[in-house]
Design brief:
The protein is mainly beta. It has one helix spanning about 10; strands spanning about 20-25, 30-40, 50-55, 60-65, 65-70, 75-80, 85-100. It is built from one helix and seven strands, in the order H-E-E-E-E-E-E-E. It is globular, with a radius of gyration of 14 Å.
Amino acid sequence: MPLNKINLKEKLSQFSKYWSPRIIAEMNDYQFKLVKIKGEFIWHDHKDTDEVFIVIEGDMRIEFRDGIVDLSEGEMYVVPKGVTHKTYAENECKVMLVEPKGVINTGETGSELTAPNDVWV
């Protein structure tokens, strides 16, 4: 068993592209991903899985058709599966996502913001 810890700040320093999640670890069938966000994402959902947002640094908003959740550093929110949402950050926000392997960031919607899957940092 390797005894290598993961330093989130060090991993975040290794990439700069927004809306492009990078995998840092796996547990069972789940992946822990880091992503930097800025600006507005697209409306989408994930039909088969919940999605966890954990704010490491900055502030972000998750918009739903019937409300908004604002998140700051140290806060998290679980978007239930099948719920349409979009994320937004006025300034750069660093986030950890926890979701099953194979989840595409734009769900089935697809757009120019669809990131390659299974990219490690």
